[in-house]
Amino acid sequence: MKINDLILRTVVQFVVFIVLTIAIYLFFAGHYTPGGGFVAGLVLASAVVMLYISFDTDTVRKGLPLDFKIVAAIGVTLALLSGILPMLFGQPFLKMSSMNIQFPLIGEKTLATVMIFELGVALTVVGVVMTIILSISEGSDD
Amino acid sequence: MITKWAIILPFIVAFIIPMIRSKLKKTHIGWIALIVPIVLFIALLRFIPQVAAGKVYEHTWQWIPSLDLSFTTYLDGLSMLFALLITGMGALVILYSIFYLSQKEALHKFYCYLLIFMTAMLGVVFSDHFIMLYFFWELTSVSSFLLIAFWHHRKASRRGAQKSMLITVSGGVAMLIGFLMIAHMTGSYSIREAIQIMPTELTNTLFIPAMVLVLLGAFTKSAQFPFHIWLPDAMEAPTPVSAYLHSATMVKAGIYLVARLTPLFAINQSWFWTVTIVGLMTMFWGSFNAVKQTDLKALLAFSTISQLGIIMSLLGMGSLVYVFGYSPATVIYTQAGFAALFHLLNHATFKGALFMMVGIVDHEVGSRDIRRLGGLMSIMPFTFTIAMIGSLSMAGIPFFNGFLSKEMFFEAALRIQQADLYSSTAMLSIIPVIVWVGSVFTFIYCTILIVKTFFGSKDKLPRDRKIHEAPKGMLISPFILVTLVVIMFFVPNFFARYLFSPAMLSLYPNTGTMEQLTPHIAAWHGFNTPLLMTIAVVIIGVILFKLLPKWRGIYNTLPERFTLNVLYDRGQNEVENVGRFMTNLYMTGSIRHYIIYIYLFFIVVVGGYFIKSDSFAFDMTKNAPIEWYEISLMAVMIIAAILILRAKSRLTAVVLNGVLGFGVSIFFVLFRAPDLALTQLVVESVTTVLFLLCFTYLPEWKKEDTPKYTKLINMAIALSAGVLVVILSFAVLHYDEFKTISGFFENAYELAGGANIVNTILGDFRAFDTMLEVVVLLTAGIGVYTLIKLKPRKERKKNEDQ
Asked: B34, B62, B115, B493 — which has fewest CB within 10 A?
């Protein structure tokens, strides 16, 4: 089945960036307002799915040369690491901490280790969702 | 601390070895593995003076203090003896294997498994915690499995590996239950604490079951009768493995456990009887069967079984000191325990050398069947010397260490005869007889080993290759071992002072001082009964060996189908058949059936619980009023759900399902749960794509032709599952069996630094849950990937059996 829909492609080219922005917004907003790693990961995944639907597999793979299995593995490792790291400082497993830092231009922001954990969750979600969708769509032929 | 390092170091190197394999093309990777046991052996040697003075080293890592789980290791006389055995033999065997295994083999795997085994074995002898001991115990079984199946293209290797695994692991599980019983009785998981507390629990009804279960573990591991059948099959492993695991170390784990727990159980007389009788039966049966073997390794396997029986029965005899209670008159019984430790080390030296000798013969001649061997003495003089010293020591001939421990064994058996155990004198008096008969058979198989391999004509040797003496490197390890065999004969008391005496303190704590527990070993002890017994063994043994063809027939008197091996095979087949039958009953391959099982379970267990506890109470009076837009949304969803049932194409069904999902997310918005609504929306979109993808694989949409009866039952199950969920969600509001946890989250901002309470729960309060969910997600993803991408390749299956 070959899809060659010009309108879809043109729209997707713009929309993908909007969706990606939303994903990043959701990721950082999660600490104070609705959002978080899981949703951000899902939104990211849906952006990639959109690309795959409107363009053919080879094109997307050229522009986005990622092995999503590895992305998922990195995600889980990050989540685990964020749990183990505090143990090195004598804290309990998965103890989260945060600090306020003065950034140039954007002012004072809170940096929390929970962000590492959330990043891990997000990457796992993207990785797993894409792995499942891609392996089902490609089948066992190759 | 040395104990922790000793356990961890081999494990670390085991991980490194497969990684650096590609970097080292030229060097044999065994040299790197060799460093580990040598370093550990030297490090342990440095502790000998302190341990010999009675000092005990202890080290604890707290793991989960609230569950009484800690990783406590300690180094005392007994664990020192075993640790030196493990590291020392480990070093010699690895050195030997470097010359035995060629570079073409999967060496990185071999040394990885071997070092994991070393970790496991050191863990067994150093652990003070019952559960840790169990963990390492099973790890030895697993590594042994991997090593036996090292040449896994051979069917016999795989079968031997499976057999040893099944028998030792079943024993291990029994042992675990025994450990749990001990912990229940004494209230402690620490072995040493349990030993202190146990005397107050003698009348406990769990005492005997715990003892039996723990002994099951020890007997299966140490190949005691009738569980010995796995050891001959395990000889399919490469010879260095047989020398290391299946004669020197792993099979002695059971001995270690019995020795370690003697102070715990021996107060009850049944311990003495079980251990002694099983040991003696094993000793007799092993030596009796060794005589009929034609494969040199099988012969050594049965001889190992027999020798393990000797050590086991000596430990049993030594435990009498607990039955009688300690007094200067009874301390003499501990000498049997001393002989056990002494023979343990002796056996490791001569049997290790013999295994390596057989390996050399196999390597150079290409056969280890005594019907095809003969006259090797002139071709392989060094190998012959090794075989000679090893066999004579095993047969208990003077000038070799086996003689000393064999004499002590006779002496202990004779002393037991005079023990005053009420009405059982008849039983006790046959003990020396069994011991003597077993020794005669031992002498015969030792003679067979030497005569059939090294004497006689060379005609039977395979002619297709030029046979010569083994390379020097292969001879180093067995030479060190046979030198030890001789040295230990001449200075036994030196070894006794530094190795066995401290170990005696662990075997018999609170019974006497180190001096009282250590007998003086003398090679010449006058013309007493033990010496006369040895002389008789030699004379009768030589006569019987000469007459062997005449009485060989007795081995055929027992019909084939009554042997333990056949029994084991039949049992295994039966279990497999029943298992397959049971699985086929419910594993139909139809997803609909599986969903029915899940729903039925849910209805019966969850619904049953709520009915039983009468928790279906709910009242609507406190609920908020229902608005008209909620009702209309609900109506849309209900219509969509009903239409799914009547849908004519899959696409319609998916779209209608989507309506349901989006309806739910609108409800989330209405009830002010933006996080949930957001997630639900995105999940809905992604799953729709997934659904559409899956459809390309499905057959065409056909009208169902299931019988009406089945349909009705399915509908009933579906309806009751749905109704149950609805009722539950009402009932949960008023269910107050558990305390509410929302109080923990109220000051989320101070505790977790986040204003979004949903996320602080996910990422901080319950982060452990989230982390495990992420792991589950990854596992599911990998599962889907492997299911679709990695189909079994048919052509690979064919050449699995060679």
From this structure: B62
Of B399, B429, B408, the residue nearest B417 (C-alpha):
B429
Report pLDDT for B632: 92
Cα separation, B395 vs B414, whole angstroms? 19
B664-673: long-range pairs with CB below 8 Å, 24+: B664/B637, B666/B633, B667/B630, B667/B633, B670/B629, B670/B630, B670/B633
Q: Output DSSP code: residue B765.
A: I
Taking an 8 Å cut-off on Cβ atoms, the answer to whether B756 and A35 are in contact is yes
For residue range B67-117, what is the model confidence (pLDDT) as tens digits? Answer: 667 788 888 889 999 999 999 999 999 999 988 888 788 888 889 999 999
Q: In sequence order, what are the beta bridge partners of B62? A: B70
- How deeply is B326 buried, as exposed, middle or buried, from its count of CB atoms within 10 A (0-12, 13-18, 19+)? middle
Residues 6+ positions from B182 with CB-CB distance below 8 Å: B130, B194, B198, B210, B214, B264
What pLDDT, on a 0 to 100 scale, did the predictor assign at position A109? 63
Residues 643-682, chain B: which have Cβ within 8 Å of A? 674-675, 678-679, 682
Choose among B678, B693, B752: nearest Cβ to A133. B693
Do A117 and B767 count as a contact with CB atoms less than 8 A apart? yes
Rounded Cα distance, B136 and B73, in Å: 12
Give the separation between CA B313 and CA B283, rounded to whole angstroms: 8
Q: How many helices (H) and strands (E) does chain B have?
A: 36, 2
Q: Which of A103-107, B171-175, B426-430 has the lowest mean pLDDT?
A: A103-107
Q: Are the Cβ atoms of A31 and B756 closer than 8 angstroms?
A: yes
Q: Contact at 8 Å (CB) between B690 and B578?
A: no
> Which residue among A26, A45, A114 places its CB closest to the CB of B764?
A114
* Preferred mutation among A33, A81, A123, A128 to probe B, highest tally of B CBs within 10 A: A128
**What is this structure's pTM?**
0.77
On chain B, the residues whose CB falls within 8 A of the CB of A126 are none
Start-to-end CA span in chain A (Å): 17
pLDDT greater than 80 at residue B588: yes
User: First vs last Cα of chain B: how many Å apart?
Assistant: 48
